[in-house]
Structure formats: C-alpha cells, structure tokens
Design brief:
alpha/beta; 361 residues; 20% strand; 35% helix; seven-stranded mixed sheet; 11 helices; single chain; six-stranded parallel sheet
Length: 361
C-alpha cells in the first residue's frame, strides 16, 4: 500500500516560510501541509487562506502538536530556532530548520541535546548545497578535477539591506550570522575541511542606519583551514545592482568557479545596466535549491535516512560566524577553540528513527 503523504507544520510564514509552504503544496506530492503558524496571527490566517491550508495558529507548540503533523519546517526568526527545535524534538517530530541553528553556542547545544535525547531527524537549511551549480561543483571537486582544494573565495551581496524592523528586538543575527554563514557552510563543504582560525573586519559604508543595531553592512572574513588551506568571504548588504553570489575554489591542479557572469569582457554593473536575467532576490537565484532541499528532506524522513546537513554542520557554521563576529569586535585573529572546546560532542550519537509516523497514524 502506498505511503500517505508526510504531514508537515510550517512555522514562520514570512517570505521564506511562505515559499517553503508553496513548494511543499505545489511540488512535493509526498508531503502535505497540515498547518501554518506565525506569531502574527493575521499573517498566518492570510497565508493559510491563500494556499488553501485548513489550519493556522499563532502558537508554534500548538502547530507542532496538531494531529497529523509528523515533521516541522522552522522558518521563524533566528532567535526562535533553538526553542522551536526543542519543542519539535520533545514532540517526536522530524525537523528542517533554517539557518542559523541558534544565535549562541549554548542555545545550539541545548537544541542538539534535545534532538539527541529524542532521537529525531534534524536537518539544517543550508540550501545552497542543493543548488545545481554548487552540487555539480562539489561532485567535480570530490572527483579530483582540481586536485587538492587550497583556496576558497566567496562573495555574497544582497541588492538591499533588510528594513529596520528586521534588526529590532534581537530577532535576527548580525551580518556574519545572517548572511556570511551560508559561505561558511560552503567553505567547510567544498574544501572538505574544518576552519581552525578566522580574522574578520567590517564597516558601515552604505547603510548608516545599521549603526543603531550595532551591525555592519560589509564584512571580510579570512579563514584558515585545519589542513593548511586559506579562504576569504566577502558579504555586503546593499550592492543595488542585484543578488550576487559567487564562489571559487582553487586547487593544486586547477580552479573551479560558480557564479553568474561568464563573458570575456569585465562588466560594470549598476542598477540601470544590470542584465535583465541577473537575479535580484534570493528566492529567484536559489529557486531550484529551495525546492530540491524540501524534496530531499521529505524523502529522507519518509524512508528513515540520515539528514544531508546535520546539526553538527549547523553548529560548526554557527561557531565560525560567532568567531568572525568576535574577531571583528576585538580586532584580532581568533581560534575556533576559543569559541568552542568540544565540537565533536555535538555529533548525534543515536540512530535517527522516523519521528511521528507511529504517533500520528
């Protein structure tokens, strides 16, 4: 007998959470959205109505415990990720959590301890690993086409900074935790190595309003890897001309580049001359990645497989981001050991079971 679709709760239905719900409803037939939740009840009501979801709530715990919910997609503000993971784990649900795992390592460790205790499935939403270009790059690097990876270089530029409300009440992280963390995850993944030290600098060059939030709009982070490789990550909040994501991995035999432009003449991009097909939003650039991420999440939970991007991966990326933040504040190179003394302790030790199936049916 065919398996019934996996029942999901989507918690946090802002721009990203709504897209997750849309993808699940329209393109993942193995899943069904049972309920959507948002602390803004009217937002939850509106999204539920637009998408045809029967149930909505402003209470995340209520959503998690709705009959028929077997898995949870957490797309709430970063401040609530760790709490959401603990609630979902306690209820025995599988979890897909957007980055970052938490805003501090103690919060992350409490969340991971809850996951380990419950033996549930947790996957982190580093969707760039699912982007066709990045996935192909990883395969080619692992196949040895460029030899031993030696240098990692990445650019992450948003066309416009988030509104001031985004930075209020400490709901989200800094530039390093909110934006650069994607590059930090890619660095570990593509280089197949751990970051040992970081040295970061930053400035406010285009968004003076960020001073009130004690944040920066541009950041540079130098990475030193455990096996001797080096890297550099640039993040910028307000490039204006488009959503510009580029990565290069230089190896002992060659180099591999991932990015938009491939022409022979260096371009000058401003708002009025950016090519019409240049992406201007992350949901456009990584449209396929977000869908593939959800398809893989549902498939892995349904067949009882291990997560593709583990809680340990989320903790390591968070540790790098926190080290970059502290390095910038203290104007010095910082060892990851100063941020975390026992990263290995975050690895799940129990075999993951298929959460919720036996409880919900």
């Amino acid at each position: 007998m065919p398996k019934a679709p996996l029942g999901l709760a989507v918690i946090g239905v802002g721009v990203m959470g709504k897209r997750h719900a849309e993808n699940l409803l329209r393109s993942v037939p193995e899943a069904r959205v049972v309920v959507v939740a948002d602390t803004d009840r009217e937002r939850a009501r509106t999204v539920a109505g637009e998408l045809g979801v029967a149930r909505f709530t402003a209470n995340p715990d209520e959503a998690i415990r709705q009959p028929g919910v077997e898995a949870v997609v957490l797309a709430s503000p970063a401040k609530f990720h760790a709490e959401g993971i603990r609630l979902a784990a306690a209820a025995g649900k599988a979890i897909l959590c957007e980055k970052p795992l938490a805003l501090t390592l103690p919060e992350a460790d409490r969340a991971l301890a809850a996951v380990e205790k419950a033996g549930v499935f947790l996957q982190l939403g580093f969707m760039r690993r699912y982007d066709p270009a990045y996935a192909a790059a990883k395969e080619r690097i692992d196949a040895g086409e460029i030899g031993e990876p030696l240098i990692f270089k990445a650019i992450g530029r948003d066309p416009k900074a988030p509104p001031p409300s985004y930075f209020e009440a400490g709901l989200s992280g800094s530039l390093f935790l909110d934006a650069s963390i994607h590059e930090f995850d890619l660095a570990r993944w593509l280089m197949a190595d751990e970051v040992a030290c970081v040295q970061a600098t930053g400035a406010i060059v285009a968004c003076p309003e960020l001073a009130a939030a004690q944040d920066v709009d541009i950041g540079f982070v130098n990475l030193h890897f455990a096996r001797g490789g080096i890297g550099n990550v640039e993040s910028f909040r307000q490039a204006l001309y488009g959503y510009d994501i580029r990565t290069e991995v230089i190896g002992s035999k060659g180099t591999l580049q991932i990015g938009f432009y491939r022409g022979p003449v260096p371009p000058v991009w401003i708002e009025s001359t950016t090519p019409p097909d240049f992406p201007r939003h992350f949901l456009v650039r990584f449209e396929a990645a977000y869908l593939r991420e959800l398809q893989d999440f549902v498939a892995r939970v349904s067949r009882g497989a291990e997560p593709a991007i583990s809680g340990f991966d989320g903790r390591q990326a968070l540790a790098i981001a926190l080290a970059a933040e502290r390095s910038f504040r203290e104007s010095r190179m910082l060892s990851l050991d100063e941020i975390t003394n026992s990263s290995a302790g975050a690895r799940p030790k129990k075999k993951m079971r298929r959460p919720g199936r036996h409880r919900s049916r």
